[in-house]
Structure formats: structure tokens, C-alpha cells
């Protein structure tokens, strides 16, 4: 059940009650593609840094170790020892990212595995079956994510097929949730709005999928090459056409600034690989902007990454030490940077929720944005 607690302009402060616990929104979901956060971060760590939702990838877990293996081991929660909500994306993004290894047909998508080259078929029914085997809290509908530079004709045809696929996803999810051997018969289904940067296609698609009465709605196909201004324009146009009384999820976004701007446009679910990917390369987020710990100026800097930060890295180690670890290619350096970045994102979301509760989100947003000038 999704309940809006407060609004400020279009911004929503809400909570989503699930079988695996209540999600306070706006929320940033920490990305663990293959059932682990890259950078040697465990689910014990995720508890410590305030993670609410972990996100895993349907395609990657289907390829390895196999969703049937995970089902036999009791589902993804038990497999990775995580007792809070999990969202699984559908494999649809891989239709975009593995463009050289796939063929799209009406029935679904034929992939060549990026691991061993074997042939894989995934359509709406297969995606739902895999996600049911994983027993995630929230399953995403199977869609195609068209390129931001695709022609209008291609995007129109792609979106129409995605709508047909969504109907099949909904029917299959209802069937799977009714089976006796389903691990999570309360699995939720979110639909995905597509349409590249064509506002009219986006709005028409949003109106069509809104009528399907799904558990939540995502805006997909942004952060795939278009400018930030284009992304904000699409959100301004599309979000008002999605059901306000359902969760709104902006997929694969983004920077702290992107999140702040999207919250003010009515989005309340986010995920992005930036904090973990940048952390593994020594780039850390602070309230003063992003720092590159490889820089020589940190060689003798005995301060934490950010003074006052309560993450495990900042409570215990200096910039100089973490820089040394990164330079020496010690895994601990990556781990500490990833922990700090995820803590920074999770803490920012808490601050956003507190600001919405207090009715001063816009003031908080402007102050936060002003402080986060790029600082390398």
C-alpha cells in the first residue's frame, strides 16, 4: 500500500508498505546488479549505511547463477541474506545496453550471453517467471528502452510493443502470484513509461499504462544519452500523466543534482550505479562537490573524506590513507569509497524526506545544490 504523507508543489513524501517492510520515500535504491554491491559491500554493510531497498538485475542473475538455483535456495532475500525490500529490473535495459548481442521480435528478445555466448530468449512471460523465482519485492515489467537518438517512427513502434508486453507481464504476474509454490505471492509489478525524448509519445504512453492499475510506474529511457535539460523537460511533461497515488520511479538516475530536481517534479524512487562506480575509481561525493582522491593534494591530508560524515570510512580513516590504498590497488580503498558514496546518497534521501516533512524542501534543495559545486 502506497500512502502520501505530505506534498510540496509536485514533490511527494510517502511510504510504500510491502511484504518485506515499509519503504519511506523519496528513496535511493542501492544497486547490486548480481546480488552484491560492486566494491565488496555486504548486506551487513547496507544495514549500517541506512539502505532501504537493494536492486538486482533479472538478466544477470538469470545468466549466473541461474534463477532456478536461487529459487531452490529460497529466493533472493535468503540467498544474499537481505531482509528488506528488493527491486529487480526486468532485463529490459539489457535490450538497450547489449544492442550488439540481441534481436527484438514481437514474442521477446533473443540475446547472446555476454558471459559465454550461449543463446538466451527473454520475453514478458520469461521475465516475470525469472523475477518470480527470484522472489523480489517489486518486479519491473519487461520493456524495450529505445535509444535517445532513435527515429520517431522507431520509438513509436517500440512503445506500442512495450505496451503489448506490459499487458502480458500483468497477466503472467497474476498467474504466478496464484501458484502454490511461488515464494513471494505478494510480488508487486511496476510498469515503465518509454518514448525517448518525444513528449507526445511519452504522454500518450503514460495515459495508456495508467489505466492498467499497476502497483507503481517508472519513467525509463532517460539518462541514456540525452541532456539533463531534456530529462527535466520530459519529467515536467510526463509525471503529471502518471497516477499521483502510485509510486513514481525514475530509472537509472542519477547525480545528487538530478535526484533533487526530479524529487521536485514528483519522482520518489531512484537508482543509479554512480555512487558505487565512481567510488571504485576514487571519486567521492561530499556536500562541497565531488572529490578525486587520486589527486596529489590529498597525499598528506589527515582529514576524513568529509568532516562530520558518520559513514564507516569517515569515522575511521583519512583521505591520505584511502588515497594510498587506491594507488596501491588495495580493494579496501574501493570498498571505503563505495561505502562513503552510498552513505552520502542514503543520507541525502533522509534529508530530503525530513525537508518535505518540515515543508522546506525547496529551500533545502537550493542550499544543497549551491554547496555541491564540482570540487576535484
UniProtKB/TrEMBL annotation:
Which keywords does UniProt give here? Glycosyltransferase, Metal-binding, Queuosine biosynthesis, Transferase, tRNA processing, Zinc
The answer to whether UniProt assigns keyword Zinc-finger to this entry is no
Q: Which region ranges are annotated with the description RNA binding?
A: 252-258
Pathway per its UniProt entry is: tRNA modification; tRNA-queuosine biosynthesis
Stored Gene3D superfamilies: Queuine tRNA-ribosyltransferase-like
Task: Return the NCBIfam families for the record.
Answer: Q_tRNA_tgt, tgt_general
Cited function: Catalyzes the base-exchange of a guanine (G) residue with the queuine precursor 7-aminomethyl-7-deazaguanine (PreQ1) at position 34 (anticodon wobble position) in tRNAs with GU(N) anticodons (tRNA-Asp, -Asn, -His and -Tyr). Catalysis occurs through a double-displacement mechanism. The nucleophile active site attacks the C1' of nucleotide 34 to detach the guanine base from the RNA, forming a covalent enzyme-RNA intermediate. The proton acceptor active site deprotonates the incoming PreQ1, allowing a nucleophilic attack on the C1' of the ribose to form the product.
Its protein name is Queuine tRNA-ribosyltransferase
UniProt organism field: Blautia hydrogenotrophica (strain DSM 10507 / JCM 14656 / S5a33) (Ruminococcus hydrogenotrophicus)
Q: What is the lineage of its organism?
A: Bacteria, Bacillati, Bacillota, Clostridia, Lachnospirales
Amino acid at each position: 500500500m502506497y500512502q502520501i504523507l505530505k506534498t510540496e508543489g509536485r514533490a511527494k513524501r510517502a511510504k510504500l508498505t510491502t511484504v518485506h517492510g515499509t519503504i519511506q520515500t523519496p528513496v535511493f535504491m542501492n544497486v547490486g546488479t548480481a546480488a552484491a554491491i560492486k566494491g565488496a559491500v555486504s548486506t551487513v554493510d547496507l544495514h549500517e549505511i541506512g539502505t532501504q531497498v537493494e536492486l538486482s538485475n533479472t538478466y544477470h542473475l538469470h545468466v549466473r547463477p541461474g534463477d532456478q538455483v536461487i529459487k531452490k535456495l529460497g529466493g533472493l532475500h535468503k540467498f544474499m541474506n537481505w531482509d528488506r525490500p528488493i527491486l529487480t529490473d526486468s532485463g529490459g535495459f539489457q535490450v538497450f545496453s547489449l544492442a550488439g548481442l540481441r534481436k527484438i521480435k514481437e514474442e521477446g528478445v533473443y540475446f547472446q550471453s555476454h558471459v559465454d555466448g550461449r543463446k538466451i530468449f527473454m520475453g514478458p512471460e520469461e521475465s516475470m517467471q525469472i523475477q518470480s523465482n527470484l522472489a523480489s519485492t517489486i518486479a519491473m515489467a519487461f520493456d524495450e528502452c529505445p535509444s535517445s537518438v532513435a527515429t520517431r517512427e522507431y520509438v513509436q513502434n517500440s512503445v506500442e510493443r512495450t505496451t503489448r508486453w506490459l499487458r502480458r507481464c500483468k497477466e503472467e504476474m497474476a498467474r504466478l502470484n496464484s501458484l502454490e509454490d511461488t515464494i513471494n505471492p505478494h510480488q508487486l509489478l511496476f510498469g515503465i513509461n518509454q518514448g525517448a525524448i518525444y513528449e507526445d509519445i511519452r504522454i500518450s504512453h503514460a495515459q495508456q499504462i495508467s489505466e492498467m492499475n499497476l502497483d507503481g510506474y517508472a519513467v525509463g529511457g532517460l539518462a541514456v544519452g540525452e541532456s539533463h535539460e531534456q530529462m527535466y523537460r520530459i519529467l515536467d511533461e510526463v509525471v503529471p500523466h502518471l497516477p499521483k497515488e502510485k509510486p513514481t520511479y525514475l530509472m537509472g538516475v542519477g547525480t545528487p543534482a538530478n535526484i533533487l530536481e526530479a524529487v521536485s517534479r514528483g519522482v520518489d524512487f531512484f537508482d543509479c550505479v554512480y555512487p558505487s562506480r565512481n567510488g571504485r575509481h576514487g571519486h567521492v561525493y561530499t556536500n562541497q562537490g565531488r572529490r578525486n582522491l587520486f589527486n596529489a593534494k590529498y597525499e598528506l591530508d589527515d582529514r576524513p573524506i568529509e568532516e562530520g560524515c558518520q559513514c564507516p570510512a569517515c569515522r575511521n580513516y583519512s583521505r591520505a590513507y584511502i588515497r594510498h590504498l587506491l594507488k596501491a590497488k588495495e580493494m579496501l580503498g574501493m570498498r571505503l569509497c563505495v561505502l562513503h558514496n552510498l552513505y552520502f546518497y542514503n543520507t541525502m534521501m533522509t534529508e530530503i524526506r525530513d525537508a518535505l516533512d518540515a515543508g522546506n524542501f525547496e529551500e533545502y534543495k537550493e542550499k544543497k545544490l549551491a554547496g555541491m559545486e564540482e570540487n576535484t
